[in-house]
Amino acid sequence: MGSEDAAQLQHELQDSIWQSFEHPTPKLTHLNADSTWLITTPRPKHDSVSGRIYYNILIDPWLQGFQVDGVSWFSKQWHAIEPAFKDLHELNAALREAEAKAKAEDAVQSSNGGIKVEPLEYKPVSSFIDLVIVSHEFTDHCHRETLLQLDPSTPVIAAQKAANAINSWRYFDNVRVMPMFSVASSDWRNTSAAFLPPWLGVSRLVTGWDPLYLHAAVLIAFGSAEENWVEGSQYGAAQAIIYSPHGILAQDLYQVKDAKPALETKALLHGLHDIDIGNAIQINRGAVNGLKAQRILNAKYWITTHDEVKVGAGLINLLLRRKELTLEDAIKADKAAAITSNAPNDCQAEGFRFIELHSGESLMLK
Q1: What share of the chain is helix, strand, coil (3-state, %, to 5)?
Q2: Cys-Cys link to 29, which of 19, 283, 341, 362 (CB 3.0-4.6 A)?
Q3: What's the start-to-end Cα distance of the chain, in Å?
Q4: 157 vs 9, 80, 120, 203, 213, CA distance in Å?
Q5: What is the pTM of this model?
Q6: Residues 243/11, Cβ–Cβ less than 8 Å
Q7: CA angle 49, 52, 58 (to 5 degrees)
Q8: Mean pLDDT throughout 337-342?
Q9: How many whole angstroms separate alpha carbon 38 and alpha carbon 81?
């Protein structure tokens, strides 16, 4: 990507993030063609110790360079499509500019007779990335070279094995293991760690039999800024984003329906491609499982993730079997297997929006 293209992409991201200030809902930006995401959500007005307007969550950052699992002769991959930013410093600069624009707009609205809000003291910060989530220990999710571009004070919440790897670097000040979400522990407010705001919870859902620790999901819950958030508050139902790059077994998502307080799933991030190794080990569950997951969660958006056909080398590259499925393929398979007696004929009939965001593209979760 040339410097002019990168500058234009930064400008578009700044503008799109700034526009989200008018809508108190999360916004998703795909930072590469694979599985690196940015969630930007406006902070509740009275929940901003730093005086900041946005809270930015970075998920599974891998931008430039290759990733190796084990040793290079076994598995080595590169991005086939250029990421939206060359590094996290460039991303941070875009977020800084977006924050500055939003604060300027907020000041204009207040001076024009908007709702009077007591001004908050602004504390300058070096990093506008507020939280990093790492879903797996594999280096296409836990990419050391990219992660080490972050400020060491950036809070990190990660799956157990990923947290162990990150702690071994002795770089970050605060790395926490992602708590489990289950029927027995279904209050998502309890997953708001000490370094998270009280209106945000991050937890992990797992599949019972999963020897490679692949088929899990991250539950990101957004409540209100109230300390004792309860159902029926003026803020309405809490919202959730479910991120499952390799595809958690769909039936294991029923437990989300038991969340207390209740959660409305805004978005499911789940891939389409069905990938296995030598027709024996399932790597990505793909579109059929994704459709089942969508029906269970009743998410407003199904957004694809982890479907980039990367440039690969090594033994694993020879053994990988990839079926590049579509949503229509999943619906056809659903009908053929008679999973339901009234399978829909098209995507629209499902009652959700199916979206593929390319590298650098964003979506407001209205």
Answers
A1: 25, 25, 50
A2: 362
A3: 31
A4: 28, 28, 28, 9, 17
A5: 0.87
A6: no
A7: 105
A8: 54
A9: 18
Average of per-residue pLDDT across 265-271: 97
Round the CA-based radius of gyration of the chain to a whole number and report it: 20
Considering Cα of 140, then 144, then 150, then 151, what sign does the dihedral take?
Answer: positive
* Tokens encoding 200: 């945000």
The pLDDT of residue 345 is 41
Q: Which residues of 173-210 are buried (b: 16+ CB within 10 A; e: fewer)?
A: eebebbbebeeeebebbebbbeebbbbbbbbbbbbeee
**Residue 59 φ/ψ, nearest 5 degrees:** -120, 130
**Host H or E run for residue 58:** strand 54-59
Mean pLDDT lowest among 134-138, 224-228, 261-265: 224-228
Share the mean pLDDT of the chain. Answer: 85
Please state, in angstroms and rounded to a whole number, the distance separating the CA atoms of residues 17 and 11. 10
What token pair was written down for 240? 């959730």
How many whole angstroms from its chain centre is CA 62?
13
